[in-house]
Write a structure and sequence with these properties.
This protein is mostly helical and 105 residues long. It contains one helix and no strands. The protein has one domain. The longest helix is centred in the middle third of the chain and has 103 residues, at 2-104. Residues 2-70 form a coiled coil. Keywords: Coiled coil.
Length: 105
Amino acid sequence: MASETVQAVRQAELKAAQTEKEAVQKKEKILSEAQQNAKELISSMTKDALEKAEKELAATNQQGEKLIEAAIAKAQNEVIIMKEMVKSKEDAAKRLVLSCVIYDK
């Protein structure tokens, strides 16, 4: 009877040691998976943030190009208007000079 009890205690100790070993292995596996999941999540979030930043940069560049094109068009229109004003003033100056020359004689 005592040997049976000793045997049962030894079996219980072995089973407890095996259960503890399995629990440690399970813990390590769970921690490893959690670390891997965290790395993948960080990588995914970083990739998403980079893609979003690239899209925003592209949109900003496109908007900047449109503003530049509009400014160039406006400047070109102003140059045309100024050339017309210069031509008009040049014609008026020619008429003034001619009238002075003609009437001064």
